[in-house]
């Protein structure tokens, strides 16, 4: 993390030795330090001037440091507040963060963490005043917020909330259905924060084998397990100075939940097979589509961990709750997908838009993007039509029936045959999985056509009555491997 500018700091602690230790540490960093032994002295100092950072112990002789924090918040003062709590006082730490504290430290205070917290608070406080340093992060934050497409009230509230919560170190829990854009929101929290220049490490908690999860999170020393031939970093080490995003936190095993809770409380990790602990310097953002409160009641998720993760909650609306945003989303997704394909974005007909509007879209934005990708692959012209969306789109209008010949004599009544009397007997047993069977047949035909045309996709498509975009889509969907002799052989 970059060095912080010289700043004014107010330290409030009733223990003279600790107060002196904090003062000396800050003076060595070049800061201007004022100290106070209780709430009364602190209030007197705050009444006479403004500070950049306020560091206060939670328990003071004449009250709680939390009172100072609330007074700073109520007066809309500029100080970033760091609260020092007793070891194991999880409730106090969470209460401080919910009341607007920038960060918290636990006793005994690690001086390295102390300095890091002050640097982070000052960078957050002064970022807007240092144009050279702040311009790039500010631009990154604006771009991240712009990726959250929509003009609905729900999306406006989400963007405003992100800008507000990004200025602290408080853990954020993002809730929402699958496909609502939880990782985009997590990235926006990171990009809008003072940590934007640091790493953003995203982890899918449900995709890690349980026997490797501790090493993946905390790192491992050489020889810690079979195959550990060298020291390796974990997610917490990789995200130092930045943001660690724990996606699908509800899928984390209970045993790992206990270890994660300890890391959050102590701000330290011990690599697998290691002896010494390492300080943790990450902003924690979590997300899930599951109902964690219900999981807590059913003993599927630790209540104390839920309490620590859910300091700031961001609940994302589903597409059903912001239907008015769908046209904007469609056009934004089309531009993004076509940019990736290197092709101009087509228009979308009013009928196709109406068809999309009529769908429930339980997969939300992710499902919408998949539908648009399929339509782009199947579209023959410059405008997306309902039939381009594949099997789920409305049937095309059938050709009109030929006129009936004029009646002559009434036909004699005939016995109606059974419905399947004219159907031929199937030549083979019915497949257990029809879609897999059809995919296999399609794959064989595509591979045959490609081989016979020396892997020229345009020629293979012509043989099968397809266009180039359609055959590309099918090759990708069916996972047909490219020839091993290079890209030149697999050409259009």
TrEMBL record:
Residue numbers of 4-aspartylphosphate PTMs: 57
Residue ranges constituting the Response regulatory domain according to the UniProt record: 8-122
Pfam entry (one): AAA_lid_14
CDD domains named in the record: AAA
Keyword Transcription in record: yes
Composition skew (Pro residues), residue ranges: 397-421
Coiled-coil ranges from the UniProt annotation: none
Signal peptide residues on this chain, from the entry's feature table: none
Residue segments, region Disordered: 384-426
Matching PANTHER family: RESPONSE REGULATOR PROTEIN PILR, TRANSCRIPTIONAL REGULATORY PROTEIN
Name this protein carries in UniProt: Sigma-54-dependent Fis family transcriptional regulator
Organism expressing this protein natively: Hydrogenophaga electricum
Gene assigned in the entry: pilR
